[in-house]
Amino acid sequence: MRAHKGSFRRGPRLGSEYEQTNWDLFGEFAALIDSVDWDVALFQEFPPSWKGRLAEACGAEAHRALSGRNWLQPITSLIGRWRPDLLGAWEGGSNTTLVRGAGGPIAERRREVLTRRPELRVLALTRLEAGPCVANLHVSTKPSSAERELFGAAERAVAFAGSDPLIFGGDFNVRPKASAVFDQLEERFELAPRTAPDRLSHLLVRGLEVVEHPAAWPPEARDRVDRDTGLKIRLADHNPVIGKFATVG
Question: CA distances (Å), 218 to each of 157, 181, 224, 236, in order?
Fold first, then answer.
């Protein structure tokens, strides 16, 4: 089973070789994601209105857990589709998990609140009929809060999975080289391996064989070129991470 973890936004602002976009980039996102070999894909800070469209474009089933700034849905989604820069993050966000191929279908969906302040952070728990469970999360930016939320999420995810294998992934907002939280996640919950010492995004697993160690794409892999201007468009603010796992035995 291939798992893909992406933290996608619309057009981060970069150097002069990059286009400063202010339009909906769904088509570019969908083409990029559908071109990748995956069974389970995890997204954070994901526009809520993209859930059904991306699932259909990729031939997948979706589980969306709304996170912060979604008070005026679907009005904000309509504005965001027209002019994303008018709203930025205020369009709303979600942790969204897509499942296709060997991963599906989805047998159970659950949304757990990790914290409400200073911003709502949630955990999307998905049980697959094929056996594995998936925990998709995006924790707070403050390291102490991030570590606390990671432990809370791991406890809930392990309890949800029970004896079934577990994929635990997302934006952890702490780096292994700067935090002992990864050692503790492995010791207490058997969740491993970390992507790399300097990475914020990770795919940890329990009860699955690691066939291909989770690794981040090179930055240029998330770029597309505007044929009209020749300028690049970057489709993600984090390097997506991909790994390959198999059931044990």
Answer: 30, 25, 13, 12
